[in-house]
Each structure stands twice: as C-alpha cells, then as structure tokens.
Amino acid sequence: MTQPTDRPGIDQLTSDQLDQLYARLDKAERAVNLLADSHRRAEQAEATLTAVRDELTAIEQTHDALDCECEAEASAGTIRRIRAVLDQHGQTAPTGGPL
After folding, report:
1. pLDDT: is 80 or 57 the higher one?
2. Is the pLDDT of residue 3 over 60?
3. Could you tell me the residue ranges of all domains in the chain?
4. Torsional class of 81: left (φ above 0), alpha (ψ -120 to 50), beta (otherwise)
5. Distance of alpha carbon 92 from alpha carbon 83, whole angstroms
6. How far is residue 83's CA from residue 94's CA, in Å, rounded to a whole number?
7. What's the pTM?
C-alpha cells in the first residue's frame, strides 16, 4: 500500500503547478547535460594528458639516446686527441685499453 503524501494527484494539478514541474524538469535536464558534457571534456583532457605524457617519454628516451651518442662522440674525439699528442711525442698508446 502506498503512503499518503502532501502532493496533489495528477488530476488535481493546476496549470501553474504543471508549469513549475516542467520548469524543474527542464532545469534538471540542463544540469544532466552539463554534467555529461563536463565528463566528456574531462575524459578528453585525460586522453590529451596521456598522449602528452607518452610524447614526453618518447622525447626523453630520444634525448637520452642522443646524450649517449654525444658522449660517445666526445669520448672518441678525446681519444683521437690523446693519440695525436702521443704520436707527436713518438709514444704509442698502451695496448689493451681503449686508446
């Protein structure tokens, strides 16, 4: 059995009360649409952040690889300079080492 309420029955609603209900319904629908739009934008922002994080990781990995290459090139240049100095002084590079 249903509990009695202070609300009027459907056949007892006045035109003004019905207008108020429709206004509340419209307001509730707008709120739901705004919330759904906010969720969509938040999901898009999360996807963008994920893409940016992935791109940053790729850039960092590329940078690290380039750093290694630059360090290797610098080391090779240092070795060439040491060999040149040794050659100028009639010395030979020690065997078994990187020089």
Report:
1. 57
2. yes
3. 14-88
4. alpha
5. 8
6. 10
7. 0.49
